[in-house]
Every structure is written in C-alpha cells, then in structure tokens.
Amino acid sequence: MKKPQLGTKTDAKSAASDIQGNNGNEEQRKALLSFVKTMTFLAGISVFVIRVVMDYLIHYNTALLANARRVEYAFFFFWAAGLAACAALKLSLGRGSALSRLGGLLKRKIRVEYVLLLGILIWGILSCVSMSTAYKGDFVTANRYAMEDMAICILVFFPMGFLFEGEAYKKILVSCLRLMIAVTTVLMIAVIWNVFRSNVVRLPEGLVIMRDGEMLEISSNRNTVAAYAAFTAFLCPVLMLSTARKWEKALYVFAFIVHWVIQCLTQSATGLIVGSLTGGLMTAFFLMERGEKVPFRRRLFTAVICGTAVMVLLWMSRKWIFRLYQICIGASVDSLRNMSSNNTFSGRLTIWRAAVRAIFGYNGNKTTFRNAMFGYTFAGVPSIIKILCGLEMYTHNEYMEVGAAMGIPALLAYIAFSVVMGMRCAGIALSHRGGVKLKERFIPILVLSLVVGNLTEAMLMGYGFMTSCFFFLMCGWCSRRSRDLGKLFLPWKTSAPPENIESTALQKGDQTSLSVDTLSERD
Q1: SS3 call for 362
Q2: How far apart are CA 119 and CA 284, in angstroms?
Q3: pLDDT tens, 294-311?
C-alpha cells in the first residue's frame, strides 16, 4: 500500500504560481491606488482654483458664474468619487478579513478633530433649514456661498492634508504652494505700485484700496487680507528650507518682503497679532534648533522675547512704510489712525457684547431656544448685531461668529477642535521624535498663529476663503504628523524635556526603525 503524498512538484509549482499571481495582483492594485490618489489630489486642487476664479467673477463677470459653479461641482464629484475609490482599493490590500481591514482603516484615518468638523458642517446646514422654517425666508440660498466654502475646507482640504502622504503628493503640494506665492507676489507688486500712485486697486478676499481725499482709504475686510498676507509671508521660510537652490531662496526672501509691505499697508490689528506671534515663534525655534534638548521654559522665554522683538519691528515697519506713502503722495495727514470707529478695540467690545447675547438666543425681544441651538446663520449675523447694538457688522471673533451663526453646539465643537489642534500642533513643534525638521515645526506655528489671530477677527469658517483653505490644509497635515509621532502637547508634563524615543529604543537593543518613513509604511 502506497503512502499518501503530502506534496508533489506539481503542487509546489501551482502554489508558487498562486503566490506570484497574488503578488502581481497586489502590485497592480497599489499602482492603481497611486494613480487614483494623484487624480483625486488634482481634483481637490482644481476645486480651490475654480472657487478663487469664481470669487473674481462675482465682481467682474457674473454671466460666467453659473458655468463656473457647474465645473466646480463636477470636480467636487470627482474628488468624492476618488476618495471612495481610494477607500475601496485600501480595503482590497492587506491581510485578514474585510471587516478587520475596515476597522484598521477607520482607526488610522478617522480623527476626533475631523469628526468635530463634520459635525459643525452638518449643524450649519441644519441652522440654515431651521432659520428658513422659523422666519419664512430662504436662508439656505442666502448662506449658500458661505456653506460651500466651509464644505470645501472641511471635505476637501483637511482630508487632503491628512490622507495624501508620500513624497509624490508632497511635491505636488509644494508646487501648488509655490505657484500660489508666485501669483500673489505678482499681484501684490501691482497693488503696491497702484497704491503709491493713488489708483483704485482690488486685492484678494475682496479688499479695495483707494485714495479718498488725502486719506488712504481701505474698505471691505482689511483684517482678512492682513492675516492672509502675514500667513503667506511666513509660508516663504517654510518653502525656503525645502530647497537648496540659492536663487529660489532669494525669490522667497523677496516674496516675504512684498507680503510684509502689504500687511503693513492694511494697518490691521489682526495682522499685527498673526505676524508677531508667527514671526516670534519661528525666530525662537530657528535660534534654538541646533541646541540639544531645550527645556520648555527656556523655549517659552525665548519665544516671548523674539515675539516682542518682531512686534516692535512690525510696528515700526508700518510707520516707515506709511511715512514713505505720505512723502510719495505729498500728504501730511495721520494715516496711522483707524479707518472707522468699529475697527477700534472699543468698537469690538460693543460688537462682542451684542454677539454674546445673540449666542444665547436673544433676538431683541426675547430669548429663544431655537436661536440658542441653531443660531442666526452667517448671513443673519450682521442683522442681529445691528438690532442689538446698532452696528451692522459680523462679530470680529471667530468663536463668537460660529456661536452666533450656528448655535451653542457648533461653538462647543469648534472650541474642542481648536483645543485638539492646538495640542497636536504644540506636540509637533516641541517634539524630539521622528527627526522633526525645522520647516515642519514652522507649519504648526502658522496654524496656532491663525487660531490666536481669530480672537479679534473671523476669517476661517464663514469668511476669508483663501486663508481658510490653506489653514485647514495645514491642520490636516498637522493631524497626520501628530499621528506619526504619537505625541500631544500636555502642559502638565513639560517639567522635563521630551524623551528621544529613537535613542531609547537603541539602548534597549530594539532594532526597529522609528523613522517617519517606517511609520508611514506601517499604515
């Protein structure tokens, strides 16, 4: 009787061919995933470009606006379909059951801050519907533009910063940032030229600069433009550290100077806050980067000193630039005074007191539970502020704006989002893990500076599309980087410098690489 054969040459060949076939299929799926990711990324960038074009069409050619909106919706659909395809391809890769792979994908990709943002977006839509029902008006159409901007920031740019890791997408992102800085630098040069010739000129975000008598009159929202100019100016050092070419570094220095001048021309307090905080923190980290593990207290002290120095420099730059403007136009007026009473701090206090009453549902006659829960929508905020204090203004505070527009639940969610992002950004900036580079520390500083700057302005959720898009893109990047580092900033644990986990692992004999590339591969 013959013994049963446990394995034959034919079986071995078939098993090897099956393995090769599976490997081949997996490589094809990975290649397809890379292609779909790239196309999805480009679709997201296209949504931003079309939206910026639409902002200009509103002022210049409204006939083309409807067609541009259809193209925007088409690219938004491509973005959503691309994300769904990426998720399906991710689920087809890896080992284990489909359910376990889905659980792992959700655990890696879903972040608490993104859940909060989605909740705010949904609540904003409910707010528009609630106001339409209560006041028999079409608040959905009235808030359509603001809600679309919010949807693009939350549904496109935050996931873009988080999901699209890898060198290929970093190169595309850096190229887009370079193009943005190049275009805005050329625009700002034209603005500076026209301002000093006293011509009417229109900036991004709807800002108009014109000469009214002997006064440099700045209408529309100069605070938003100032914050955008400060943000773009300090984005230049981040990109400057990303290149080794000296001529590119020189161009970034030139772009920084141009945006600095524009920021000074706006004479905005918000721009002063954002510029001082960003410049101070960047300078502090630049000075201390080459040292060993520096205690948190020393970093904080250096940051305060550098921030104060940058604030003084920025304030003096404003005086010098406006003095040069006065000489060029032959005027002898005090161009440094505020443009209107509601731009002063006392004016803001009046608006803030009215905003607090609006947040708790007061509509001038009584306090209603509906308005406390769902707010008055972004389009209705200026009207309710006018009823309560006589000034038809938005709230000049991001948190009050969210609370008055979308209600107390949205306000609490936005505060929670800001706290979580603040902890993640501080964790990246102060971390010694994973070989965090200097330019990577500058990105969370930009995010933190805009969050603080929005205490005196509202330019991230309902207004300031160009600023908010790049803000949420950087938030997504910080969320991803924080996950790689596995680190949050906990202020009650800053008595000792952070531990270098890489050297500790080597001391214990652990040969596992803890680099960022390895962490990305594990996902």
Answers
A1: strand
A2: 36
A3: 676 777 778 788 888 888
Phi and psi of 217, rounded to 5°? -85, 125
Distance of alpha carbon 107 from alpha carbon 398, whole angstroms: 30
Residue 248's Cβ-count burial label (10 Å; 0-12, 13-18, 19+) is: middle
**How deeply is 259 buried, as exposed, middle or buried, from its count of CB atoms within 10 A (0-12, 13-18, 19+)?**
buried
Residue 492 has pLDDT above 90, yes or no: no
* pLDDT of 502 strictly over 50: no
Q: Look up residue 79 and give its two tokens.
A: 């973005």
Phi and psi based region of residue 206 (left: phi greater than 0; alpha: psi -120 to 50; beta: remaining): left
Q: What is the dihedral of CA 111, 115, 117, 119, to 10 degrees?
A: 180
Q: Three-state DSSP class for 201?
A: strand
Q: Please give the pLDDT value at position 119.
A: 93
Q: Say which DSSP state 335 is in.
A: T
Compute the distance between CA of residue 278 and CA of residue 280 in angstroms, rounded to an integer. Answer: 6
Burial zone of 438 (CB within 10 Å; 0-12 exposed, 13-18 middle, 19+ buried):
middle
Q: What are the structure tokens assigned to 453, written together?
A: 């700057």
Which of 149-153, 342-346, 365-369 shows the lowest per-residue confidence on average (mean pLDDT)? 342-346
- Between CA 456 and CA 399 the distance in angstroms is 10
Q: What separation, in Å, do the N-terminal and C-terminal C-alpha atoms of the chain show?
A: 53
Q: How far apart are CA 404 and CA 384, in angstroms?
A: 9
Q: Which of 38-52, 159-173, 340-354 has the lowest mean pLDDT?
A: 340-354
Please report how the helices 465-485 and 438-453 are oriented relative to each other, as an axis angle in degrees rounded to 10: 130
Where does the pLDDT of residue 418 fall: very low under 50, low under 70, confident under 90, or very high at 90 and above?
very high
CB count, 10 Å around CB of 340?
Answer: 10
3-state secondary structure of 211: strand
Looking at residue 414, what is its pLDDT?
Answer: 94
CA distance 411 to 400: 8
Inter-axis angle of helices 465-485 and 408-430, to 10 degrees? 60
Could you give phi then psi for residue 215, rounded to 5 degrees?
-110, 140
What would the 3-class secondary structure string for 410-476 be?
Answer: HHHHHHHHHHHHHHHHHHHHHCCCCCCCHHHHHHHHHHHHHHHHCCCCCCCCCCCHHHHHHHHHHHH
d(CA 306, CA 107): 40
DSSP per-residue string spanning 358-375: HHTTB-SS-B-HHHHHH-
Q: What is the mean pLDDT of the chain?
A: 75
Rounded CA separation 87/37 (Å):
10
Contact 458, 394 (CB under 8 A): yes
3-class state of residue 277 by DSSP: helix
